[in-house]
Fold these 2 entries.
Entry 1:
Amino acid sequence: MVSQTLQTDTVSAAPLCTDWRAALADAVHDPAELCRLLRLDPSVAAAAERAADGFPLLVPRPFIGRIRPGDPQDPLLAQVLPRGAELAESPGFSADPLGEAQATVAPGLLCKYQGRSLMVTTGRCAVHCRFCFRRHFPHHASPRTLADWEPAMRRLAAERSIHEVILSGGDPLTVPDEQLARLARRLAQIPHLSRLRVHTRLPVMIPRRVTDELLGWLRGTRLSPVVVVQVNHPAEIDTAVAAALGRLVDAGIPVLNQAVLLRGINDRIDVLAQLCERLADLRVMPYYLHQLDPVAGTAHFQVPEPTGIRLIAQLRARLPGYAVPRYVREIPGQTSKLVLA
Ligand SMILES: *Cc1c(COP(=O)(O)O)cnc(C)c1O
Ligand code: SF4
């Protein structure tokens, strides 16, 4: 009796913050269900089942709602549907092409570039992007509790040249706001830190993730917040996503976008121009267009660099300078990402 009462209280006390968590938990894992929802041939599901090996299908329902039913070539579906090509080995494509293992300076803490450090906040994501550069990352080794993070905190405290911490993952916004607020408070105790950046796809995948609690801790910390989202195709932005991004910007938080250049998804000038223009309309600044990192299982998404360079030149001829992203590639051992155009 007593425990039932307690449970009821817990649920009714926090209906809003559990809402996005319900959407996260309710994401589709089963290729057969995805194909049923999208009226795709069951053979697509069977192929996805075989290809998902080791990196399962995961798509939240609000994103599924933006995929055109009955179209196996849909550019949003292509980002999330496992295909046989993932199993093919390609020369030059490996599990850790970016040398992230080498850049790990404390559990969960990557330090590659001067002045900023990246925390692999969690291995969990709202979606599994088939082209993900961390699809083989050893997430089980990352810290979970604030106590687990202490070695990383000590390292950050000792490294006075670091002014910015990037919460990455996985997706840091899969972590509840109370925990993120605690993490932000702990980071704010390190005097030489001045900025906190969040790399996330959640406002796009599950727009209701942009809660008052999230805005509260982002605005409440002493550190200047920056949010970097990932939108690869204009069809990812519906009215709910536009509103979620607007809430972040209205809260005074700079919002930037990074996209990955993906074959058959956004490697056409009309698609890229529409994406950049829509983002600018929403006050989200296109930041990077990434050349695909050569991660095993993703070779079929690769666009040749000369094509990317040409696309950027075409964008520059059409759009205001602030709406043109930098086309970059990551090369291990360099002092920054290499700007290709
Ligand atoms: C990309 C990246 C960053 C951030 O680079 P910016 O150019 O500042 O956006 C930081 N750390 C690591 C390990 C990265 O891969
Ligand atoms: S959300 Fe980011 S980390 Fe997660 S699968 Fe997609 S690209 Fe990878």
Entry 2:
Amino acid sequence: MSQLPFLPFALPEIGEDEIAEVVDTLRSGWLTTGPKAKRFEAAFGAFLGDASLHCIAVNSATAGLHLALEALGIGPGDEVIVPTHTFTATAEVVRYLGADVTLVDIDPATLNIDPRAVEAAINRRTKAIVPVHYGGLAADMPALLAIARRHGLKVVEDAAHALPTTSGGRLVGTLGSDATVFSFYANKTITTGEGGMLVTRDAALAKRAQVMRLHGMSRDAFDRFTATVPSWYYEIVAPGFKYNLTDIAAAIGLHQLKKAHAFALRRTQIAQRFSAAFAGLPLVVPPAAPAGELHAWHLYALRLGDGALPTRDQVIERLFAAGIGCSVHYIPLHRQPYWRDRYRLAAGLFPHSQRVYERQLSLPIYTRMDDGDVERVIEAVTRAIAAA
Ligand SMILES: *Cc1c(COP(=O)(O)O)cnc(C)c1O
């Protein structure tokens, strides 16, 4: 029916500078972790504006979350609190370590982890909280950090959506948790194809993550005896992982990072246009950031309001028929067979996440959409919800 080309849900924006930098890497003779990964780590610290941060480039955010929790000593017998309204990566890393996941509900206004639900879920085994900055809006970090302090818990932020996001005027990554992990997956706010960054102020955590990122290989002995031990020498101090970021990927990241604020500005414009256009319709628009704060707008997660409306699934079908890709973030973890069965979870335990899930869809929001694309999405949504 539609003559217009299909508008995908997400598309990366890769420019000639990324392409030239990758070509330079390919010609350089050094493809894996090397000078460009090191430059990317330094540039990331500079972007966050905090010289005391250790930035550790990894090949995914999943890897970074795993490394952070491993370095914090999470293991069998421990529990880690995770919001149910997230991607499985946030929780699966806890299981890699033999620890247990405690899923908790979200605040229906922000769609972020509810600090009261966190506090209610704490018991003697609880060791850490992994909040997610859902869609790019900061979770309530002051409340979560206060709870963690009171109960002696670690905090690892899943910042896969949150570059650049602020809380209290400070960028996520600098907020005072134990570690923060960003994702550079293909559809995230900046991309390296696959990749991630683990950020921490904790020197011991950084050291452990650096060793475990590459096979548990330590050159401490080499560093100590540089004068006498030749450079082939290393020691394996643990059964580590293979989580290093290649220079090919870092080459892309170096240029994506320079554009991160411009990208966010464009996504913010699109979000504002969507929310203004949907204001008069029976829809619940996602919350904007509080005044003065940055929202990364990785997702624009719209909800159907009350009243005689088509179902969420019908709306998605109609948008698809109109040539517009959308998605759902997320099928909550308590609905997923593994998590549901492993912890015998009933939907009634997570009323907010469950209700949001049933009425939620994510619209395309990315820098390669022009104003015409944005209006086309608005028109299609308006039409899709009109006829029940
Ligand atoms: C994308 C995503 C991840 C995983 O990121 P990868 O880099 O693909 O490992 C983790 N958590 C959330 C909330 C995500 O959206």
